[in-house]
Amino acid sequence: MDTATERSSTGLLGGPELSTLERVVIVLLGISALTHLYAGVVEGAPPVFLAGVGFVGGIVLYLRGVRRHTLTVAAVPFTAVQIPLWYVAKAGEYTAVGYLDKVVQVVLVVLLVVLALRQRREA
User: Fold this and answer.
1) pLDDT over threshold 70, residue 8
2) d(Cα 33, Cα 15) in Å, to the nearest integer?
3) Span 24-29, mean pLDDT?
4) Is 13 a residue whose pLDDT tops 80?
5) Mean residue pLDDT across the chain
6) Which of 9, 17, 63, 72 is most buried (most C-beta within 10 Å)?
7) Does the keyword Membrane belong to this entry (predicted)?
8) Contact criterion met (CB below 8 Å) for 28 and 75
9) Please, what's the b/e burial string for 61-83 (b: 16 or more CB within 10 A of its CB; e: otherwise)?
10) CA nearest neighbour of 36 among 25, 56, 54, 52
11) Which residue did the predictor score with more confidence, 92 or 4?
């Protein structure tokens, strides 16, 4: 299990080194960001595109080491709300990309909660 004391002092983009859990969360956030950016452009849906930009912004801030616990906690509802919004907005017109993104987001919400609890315990 990775802990804050096992990490080296600096990682990607000048922030503290990432644990394995943090790396998995970043990859899943990246997948969700890409699917939102793609869907936002292809479907001409600015709110979907902006959600993708939000994911990217959060990733960059996290990698820079900016208020990681706060970002983790904020990412839980930001990610979770995407699921019912997709269900309502698509109203039966679901795509494989959408299903992939929702599976990623369900796993992501669980892992974000675990990460937030670990960060709180390590603080």
Assistant:
1) no
2) 21
3) 97
4) no
5) 89
6) 72
7) yes
8) no
9) bbbebeebeebbbebbebbbebe
10) 52
11) 92
Could you tell me the pTM of the whole model? 0.85
Coil vs helix vs strand at 66: coil
15: which DSSP letter?
S
d(CA 60, CA 54): 10
Instruction: List, for residues 89-123, the tens digit of each pLDDT value.
Output: 888 888 888 899 999 999 999 999 999 999 999 97
What tokens does 68 get? 């990681």
CB 63 within 8 A of CB 89: no
Helix 46-63 × helix 20-42 angle, to 10° = 160
Mean pLDDT, range 6-30, rounded to an integer: 78
Let me know how long the chain is.
123
Alpha helices in the chain (DSSP H): 20-42, 46-63, 68-80, 82-90, 96-122
How far is residue 88's CA from residue 53's CA, in Å, rounded to a whole number?
A: 21
